[in-house]
């Protein structure tokens, strides 16, 4: 049997810019910020000039009006998930927006193919969800001095190296499910010893055995000669 998806009736629709409206960016919890496609310059260097379309020349006044309309500086809660914002031609626009989020407290960037946000600072962010991205290290995360809840499930974080950068934050809960570092020996003990304010790891509250320092097995240093 063939069942249509709920979105099936919209599959032939195109995205359009609404040039005259009173909606501000800070009023939208899930705005679509993905650019329509590569710039004309990038298409030229790719040798794809045939895909170029005549685009409207945006004046400086229109750029300033759009900047005021976005109003990212006053945004406190924002969801930019599922937009593939890690694509090369999306990164510049994404970083432009992230740098303006000086008051955001809750931010979701789930499943965006993101690799490195280390140049970004989110001074008031308390909750950050970057599940299902391509981070390989804690060093690639944005600077989040006020973070309380951090979710990094289904990335590719190999080791716990760099986790100490979060040591002086008020981080209370951390999720690292489905990352290679989850299989590191003494994983929970190492995480809790590195993060003194942490109360919950991977949805499980701190256990008594998590408080003891990681044990180094004496036997692991011996070899058996037969």
UniProtKB/TrEMBL annotation:
Signal peptide: none annotated. SUPFAM superfamilies: L domain-like (SSF52058). PANTHER family: GENE 29133-RELATED, LEUCINE RICH REPEAT PROTEIN. This is TILB protein. The gene is Lrcc6. It comes from the Eukaryota. Keywords: Leucine-rich repeat, Repeat.
